[in-house]
Amino acid sequence: MIEMRDVGFGYQGQAELLSDMNLSLQAGMFHFLTGPSGAGKTTLLRLCYGDLMPSSGRMSLFGEEPRSLDRDAVADLRRRVGVVHQDPQFLDHLPVAENIALPLTIAGEPVDMQAMRDLLGWVQLQGHARALPPSLSGGERQRAALARAVILSPDVVLADEPTGNLDWEMSMRLMQLLIELNKSGKTVLVATHDLNLIRATKAQVTARVLRISGGTLHLAGADL
Amino acid sequence: MGADLRTLNPIALWRGLFGSEVNGSDRIVPPTGFTAQLTLFSAGAMAFLAVFALALALATGRLAERWSSDLAGAVTIRVSAPAGEQEARVQSALQILRTTPGVGQPRQLPPEELAALLEPWFGPDMPVDALPMPALIDLPVESADFDPEGLRLRLEAEAPGSVLDDHTEWRRPLIAAAKRLKFLGIVSLILIAAASAAMITLAAKAALAANGQVIRVLRLIGARDLTIATAFVRRFTRRAAAGATVGTAAGMLGIAILPSAEQAGGFLTGLGFQGLGWLLPLTIPLVAAAVGFFATRWAALKMLEAVR
């Protein structure tokens, strides 16, 4: 699915941020990626959806070497990866429902209204279908971003500090949705520095915790 | 642009102009008042100017052609002599002309025609008869056998005071000027198209820059460059076509209400369109749409390359 072998990456003109990264996302597994701020969690996730290209090592995204992909192929690959950011971006002039349906729109696929209603219900935004994104709260924006990330039924869902701006209750509501996704067979990778969140989630689902520190990736200890 | 042309779907231009909104994809670009107005206005203004440039090119083309064909088909012989000898010299000249190969029947202009020629300068009440006027003989040229130099020499030798005027001296610079005007009209059309492309490209770039967030979101969720570009291209193509349609209609109206050639004393020699020529300006909105299509497509694809 997503594999890295001795992958290194450094931003242009800067020292290597990540080195000798070895990662293999296991299908259907819940993964956490943790580490201190600035350790490279976001960079690693961006490598996973082809937003950045590794500067060394071998990488495989769904069997493809990302450096060999052209722009259209990268775009197609992103339809297989749902991404949720800490500060999700929307098209502010479109209602929430149309924002969630955007991946279908750009793929030229019709929107099944019943499926849309079910999805809005799942993320508890049924009353916000016609609202514009700027009117949503932080938790609602994250849930809308999650709904948008899964509408094409991707193989993998990546979430980058999705609870970074949320209080504990809202964070757990969002994590509950990610757990449900994982239990439905989706592979999930959540980057977070919040160890309490990881512990609370692990109480409900089997999760692999990867820690990134010193530019390399390790399997976290039993304390997590 | 080369690669752009190679990857162009020929149906895309038609769709860009008239295709219906597909699955709401046009809505992904937010409405932008400023660039919309800029594109509409510049397309309209340029189309308006293009109508006049086209009219100028066509009119000067006709003028050059008319001057070339009408005047090249006839020469004039001017016979000057003292009062008592003029008739004899005219007869000598006519005798020479009748035996000249490649010409038709010579015709001496009667006094009333001479008076009509002088009327614009001296007015209708001038007693032309009292003036020492030369006689004028109109000689139609009918074939390429006509040798104006040979005739000029014969007249000098056998009918002194007779001068051949084949209109070349004053016709040549006029034809050259008309042809140059036609060329300038065509250059103006090309410049108008180029300036339109530049303005639409700038407006499209401004719209793309203002919609950086839209582009990032779309790339993130797996939109291909062409999908994103098309959303902008459709909008700008339609605006260019709409603005140019209004500008063209206004320009054609302006041409239509110009005084006719007869009313203007023939001086304007029919600046405007004639017959099927009125269909030509109708191509301007189509050209504007094509310019908008290619300019926006090029600008969008170029700019999208910078977004991963």
Written overview of the protein:
- The complex is a heterodimer of chains A (224) and B (308).
- Chain A has helices spanning 41-48, 71-78, 96-100, 102-107, 113-122, 138-150, 168-183, 195-202; strands at residues 2-9, 18-24, 30-34, 56-61, 81-84, 156-160, 187-191, 207-213, 216-219.
- Chain A has one domain (2-12, 21-219): P-loop containing nucleotide triphosphate hydrolases (Rossmann fold), CATH 3.40.50.
- Chain A has a six-stranded mixed beta sheet, sandwiched between helices. In chain A, strands 2-1-4 form a three-stranded antiparallel beta sheet, with helices on one face.
- Chain A has 224 residues and is an alpha/beta fold.
- Chain A contains eight helices and nine strands.
- Chain B has 308 residues and is mainly alpha-helical.
- Chain B has two domains: 2-68 and 172-304, no CATH class; 81-160, no CATH class.
- Chain B is 64% helix and 6% strand.
- Chain B has ten helices and four strands.
- Chain B has helices at 2-6, 10-18, 33-72, 86-98, 111-122, 148-158, 168-210, 212-220, 225-256, 283-304, and strands spanning 74-79, 107-108, 135-140, 162-165.
- In chain B, helix 2 (10-18) crosses helix 9 (225-256) and helix 3 (33-72) packs across helix 9.
- The longest helix of chain B is centred in the middle third of the chain and has 43 residues, at 168-210.
- The model of chain B is unreliable at 1-5 (pLDDT under 50).
- At the A-B interface, helix 2 and helix 4 of A face helix 8 and helix 9 of B.
Termini separation of chain B (Å)?
Answer: 21 Å
Number of domains of chain A: 1
| Residues in helix, % of chain B | 55-70%
Query: How would a crystallographer describe the biggest sheet of chain A?
Result: 6 strands, mixed
Based on CA inertia axes, which overall geometry of chain B fits?
elongated
Please identify the structural class of chain A as seen in this structure. alpha/beta
The tally of helices of chain A reads 8
| Category by helix and strand content of chain B | mainly alpha
CATH superfamily of chain A: P-loop containing nucleotide triphosphate hydrolases
Count of DSSP E strands of chain B?
A: 4
Mean pLDDT of chain A: 92
